């Protein structure tokens, strides 16, 4: 059970970093205006754990730009 929780938290952290990076780096001119909103939406999205991480990677694969925006945690 502890391994499941640790794996879920790791996937959540990676999903958060990836979602926040996309929100902030896709439109850099307005990134600071929506910083707090992007932070909160990425945090809410990351609660899905491995499901959120899989959704991010699948959407990136369809766009053809896997890891284009990297990860951003703050």
Provide a descriptive summary of the structure in words.
The chain is mainly α and 74 residues long. The chain has one domain (2-63). It has three helices and no strands. It has helices at residues 2-25, 35-45, 50-63. The relative contact order is 0.21. The model has no long low-confidence stretch (mean pLDDT 88).
Please specify the SSE layout and strand pairing.
Elements: H1 2-25, H2 35-45, H3 50-63
Helix pairs in contact: 1-2, 1-3
The percentage of residues in β strands lies in: under 5%
- Rg from Cα: 13 Å
User: How many domains make up the 3D coordinates?
Assistant: 1
Shape: globular
Q: Biggest β-sheet, characterized?
A: none
- Report the count of strand segments: 0
**Helix/strand order:** HHH
Number of helices: 3
Helix content: 55-70%
Distance between the termini: 30 Å
Q: Quaternary arrangement of the chains shown?
A: single chain
Query: Structural class per helix/strand content?
Result: mainly alpha
- The residue ranges in which pLDDT falls below 50 over 5 or more consecutive positions are none
Give short descriptive properties of this protein.
74 residues; 3 helices; globular; 66% helix; 0% strand; mainly alpha; single chain
Quick structural overview:
This protein is mostly helical.
